[in-house]
Request: fold
Amino acid sequence: MLLIWPVGKVRDPALKSLCDNYTRRAGKSGLPTRVEEIAEGKGGTVRSPDALLRRMAAAGWVAALDEAGVELNSVAFARRLQLELGRHGDLVFLIGGAAGLPASVLAAANARISLSAMTFPHEMARLLLLEQIYRAATILKGTPYHRA
Reply:
C-alpha cells in the first residue's frame, strides 16, 4: 500500500477531482494508494511535528518530497517503488504544506525525493505525485500509458 501524507487539504475542486482520479487509477493498476491528510497549522506548517514523527517511526519506509531530494525519471521511480514495496510492504510519501516540512521530519525520512528542480504549490505536488504513482503502476505492468 502506498500512503500519501500531505499537509493540509486540496481546496480546489478541480484539483481534488484529478487527485481522486489518479488515486483510483493507481489502485486499479496494481498500486493501491490512500491519502491521509496531516493537520495544517498556521502558515502552512505541520500542526504537530512530534505527532508526525511518531507516525513516521511506526511506518515501514518514508520518503519526503523535498526540492533538495533526488530527482528520478518515471522509470527509475517505478523501479524504486517496486524495490521498496518488496522490502517494506507499505510506503509513505510526505508532502509539506506551504511552509514545507520541518527539518526534524526531513531528517527522519528514509529518503528525500524531488518531483522537479522547480517549486510547485503543495496541492499541485500532490497531483504530480499521484500521477507519477499511476504512471509507475503502468510501467511495472507494461501497459502503454507511459511512452518513453
